[in-house]
Amino acid sequence: MSNSSILFSSDRNPRAASSIERPDEIIQESLAFVGGTIYVKGGVQIDAKLKNVTVVALDENPVVLSALGSMDHCAIDASDVLICGDFTGEVRAKGDCEVAPTAKVRGLILVRGRVLISTLAGDSEEIRVGRLTNEMVTDIAFTESSMADGTKLSGT
């Protein structure tokens, strides 16, 4: 399934476009997560069902919620975000955020860069957009000791 994008086209943002087209990780549609935090390195595509989960990108690669995935009462903290599926919650994008025509979104989108929301993505009253300020951004200094069980992410 293609995650087509205007903001993250190869002409406008080749790094993000490449990561969206060929993500490093895909969280499969057959999985479901309830509660907790998922830390990701590299580009990630979410096809799964998530509820009360925070997804934190530890690098500058985008987080993509595909049309197959859904996130209910969740948060995404990433550089760039592309939403193609159902999302309720809060997005904190240090770069750009795009909400595709296939998306259904309710919640708050905070961005430092550009935001593009398809008119088909939900009622305008259900999507709030704001500026992500320096005070709101917390750089994640991720170390092995920050994980309770000492788990090390691959590539670190």
What does this molecule look like?
With 156 residues, the chain is mainly beta. It has one domain. It has one helix and twelve strands. It has one helix at 14-21, and strands at residues 25-27, 32-40, 44-46, 49-57, 63-65, 70-78, 81-83, 86-93, 97-99, 104-111, 115-117, 127-131. The strands form two sheets. Strands 1-3-5-7-9-11 form a six-stranded parallel β-sheet, with no helix packed on it. The protein is globular, with a radius of gyration of 15 Å. The protein starts with 13 loop residues before the first helix and ends in a 25-residue tail after the last strand. Residues 139-145 have low confidence and may be disordered.
Write the layout of secondary structure elements.
Blueprint (H helix, E strand, L loop, with lengths): L13 H8 L3 E3 L4 E9 L3 E3 L2 E9 L5 E3 L4 E9 L2 E3 L2 E8 L3 E3 L4 E8 L3 E3 L9 E5 L25
Parallel strand pairs: 1-3, 2-4, 3-5, 4-6, 5-7, 6-8, 7-9, 8-10, 9-11, 10-12
- The helicity comes to under 10%
What is the molecular shape? globular
Strand order of the largest sheet: 1-3-5-7-9-11
Low-confidence stretches: 139-145
Please give the largest β-sheet: 6 strands, parallel
Task: Quote the average pLDDT.
Answer: 84
**Structural class category:** mainly beta
Which labels suit this protein?
six-stranded parallel beta sheet; 1 helix; 5% helix; 42% strand; 156 residues; mainly beta; 12 strands
